Amino acid sequence: MPAVLPMKTLYLMRHAKSSWSFDDLSDQERPLNDRGRDDAPRMGQALARRHVVLDLLVSSPAVRALSTATLVARELPYPHDRIRVEAGIYGADVDELLALIRALPDTAGSVLLVGHNPTITDTANALSPTSFKELPTAAVVCLKFATEQWAEASKVTAEYYFYDYPRNPH
Fold first, then answer.
1. Minimal CA–CA distance to 101: which of 86, 116, 83, 91?
2. What are the distances in angstroms from CA 62 to CA 38, 86, 91, 122?
3. In this model, does residue 163 exceed pLDDT 70?
4. First-to-final CA distance of the chain
C-alpha cells in the first residue's frame, strides 16, 4: 500500500459584497450588502456540499470579512466563537499574508482564510500553480499542500484543487 502524503488544505476567500451606503462608516466598519448576505451562506453551502471540514477559520477584523466568515461558518458548521480574528489580514500585502499562512498552527490541517482584494487574489496567484484574474467577491480558491508544516506552503508544494464563486453554478 502506498504511503499517504501529509497534506495541508487552504481555502482563500474574498469577503462577500459590501455596502458603500454608509458615508459615516470607516472602511473597516462597512457591512455586507444584501447580495453579500446572500452570497456568503451560498458559498458556505457550496463548501458543505464538497464535505469541507475546517480545523481553523481565520478572518480579517473588518466587519464585511468577519460577517462573511460567520455566515460561512454557520453553513459548515464551524463554531462562530472559534473564528480567529487576525488584525494583520486587513491591509496586508502578499508577503504579510504569506507569512501569516506559513505561521498557521501545524495542528490545523484545513484552514479557511477570509480577507480582502487585491491581496487574496495576489496570494492565490503566489501559491497556486494555476493563475487567477481578480477573484470576485465571496470567491473561494482551494489549494492543497504536500507538507506537514504550513511553513512549507508554497507554489512548489501546492496543488490546485478548486475555484468557486457565487455566480458559478456549483
1. 86
2. 18, 10, 10, 19
3. yes
4. 34
Question: In degrees to the nearest 10, what's the CA dihedral of 80, 82, 86, 89?
Answer: -50
Quote the CA–CA distance of 89 and 69 in Å, as a whole number: 13
Indicate whether this model's pTM tops 0.85: yes
pLDDT tens profile 56-105: 999 999 999 999 999 999 999 899 999 999 999 999 999 999 999 999 99
- Residue-wise pLDDT for 30-52, tens only, equals 899 999 999 999 999 999 999 99
Q: Order the strands of the 56-59 sheet from edge to edge.
A: 84-85, 56-59, 110-115, 8-14, 140-145, 158-164
Whether the bond into 77 is cis, omega within 30 of 0:
yes
Q: Tell me the domains of the chain and their CATH numbers.
A: 8-145+160-164 (3.40.50.1240)
CA distance linking residue 13 with residue 124, whole number of Å: 9
φ and ψ of 143, to 5 deg: -125, 145
In residues, how long is the chain?
Answer: 170
DSSP helix, strand, coil percent of the chain (3-state; round to 5): 35, 20, 45
Instruction: Decide: 157 and 22 in contact? Cβ < 8 Å.
Output: no
Are 83 and 56 within 8 A, CB to CB?
Answer: no
